[in-house]
Amino acid sequence: MATIVVTSKNHPRTRRLNRIAYFLEGAAQSFKAGHVVVLTAGKVVKGATDPAAGTVLGIAAEAASGITDNKVGVFVGDENAEFIGNVQDAGALALANVGLSCGLVLDAVNDIFRVDLGDTTNLQVKVLELVDAVGDINGAVVFKFLNAARVPYAS
């Protein structure tokens, strides 16, 4: 068992079956590549901890330009897309995590999104497999966005 050191570089990233689509950027955005992005009033904006159901587009493929209505690339979180992300601060990986539906949390210290194994109320993602070893603290998992979390036309 190891404790994985998590930094601002540990943002969620693509694993497989990811496609990029382009959406209009919302006003005054400053999201970075790797941030979870949502659709608000038809525009891409940075998500927050536990985004509202039916709003998640996926993971930003590029940073916001800061220009309203500029097209920005997003790795769409459709039913096939898989991503890798670290679990919440001090979260330990367990075999029971595989198949778990849980939330997302914005780590304010590192400005990254993490899979929140402890939140089984605000369901955003499903853990598909462990990347790091059982027992590792802050380890990485493979996940996909749940249908109820995603924007309906993002598939």
Summarize the model shown.
The protein has 155 residues and is an all-beta fold.
CATH architecture label name: Beta Barrel
Distance between the termini: 37 Å
Number of helices: 0
Q: Care to count the β-strands?
A: 11
Report the top-level CATH class: Mainly Beta
Can you characterise this structure?
The protein is mainly β and 155 residues long. It has one domain (1-155): Virus Head Decoration Protein, Chain: A. The chain is 0% helix and 37% strand. The chain has no helices and 11 strands. It has strands spanning 13-16, 20-24, 36-40, 43-46, 56-60, 71-76, 82-86, 101-107, 112-116, 125-130, 140-145. A 6-stranded antiparallel β-sheet has the order 1-7-11-10-8-9, with no helix packed on it. Strands 2-6-5-3-4 form a 5-stranded antiparallel β-sheet, with no helix packed on it. The radius of gyration is 15 Å and the shape is globular. The termini are far apart. The mean pLDDT is 94.
